[in-house]
Amino acid sequence: MTGGERTVLVDASVLITLADTGSAALLAGLDGSVVVPDPVRREVTSDPAAKALSDAIDDGWVTCPQSVSTAAVEEAASHLGRSDGDPRGDAVLLAHALVAADPVVVTDDKPRRQTCKALSIPVAGSIGVLVRAVERGDIEPDDATETLYAMDEVGARFSASLVRKAERLIDDAAD
User: Fold this and answer.
1) How many other C-beta atoms lie within 10 A of the C-beta of residue 163?
2) 35 lies in which domain range?
3) Could you read off the pLDDT of 124-173 as tens digits, one per residue?
4) Which of 47, 95, 117, 166 has the highest CB neighbour count under 10 A?
C-alpha cells in the first residue's frame, strides 16, 4: 500500500470473494488507504474473510472508521433508495465515499456500482483488484486467471462475457 491521498473503500462482497480465494492480501497493494467502515466490518462474520480482515487490521493496512456524519449517511441512504433509520454497511460505505477527497469504492454489487457511477464516484470490483495486482507484479497472470475462475466458483456470479473480458484485461495488464 502507498501512503497516497486516495481512500479505497472496500465492501463486504469483495472482501469475502477475495478471502474465499485466498487473495484478500491483494487489497494491500492498492494505491491509497484501504478502508472498511465499521458497519461493513460487522457484516464479515465467517472465515476465511473474518480472519483475513482481522489480520489486515492487525497488520495495519486496513482501517475501520466507526463514524461518519449522520447527514452523509442519510444522503447515501437516499441515493441507495432507502429512508430507513438503520445505517447498514452499504449506506455507511457510500457516506464515506461522499465525504472523502479522493475516494474509490470497491464493490461487486451492481446497484451500488450504478449508484457510485451516477454520483461520479470511481468504482472498481474484485476483478479490478486482480488486474491491478497483475499490473503491479504482485501476482502472475496465470495465477490471476486461476483466481478469477475460483472467484466465479465461490459465488461472485460473473457472466461468461465478463469472465472473457476479465481474461483479456489480465492478459493486457501483463504486457
Assistant:
1) 17
2) 7-174
3) 999 999 999 999 999 999 999 999 999 988 887 888 999 999 999 999 99
4) 95
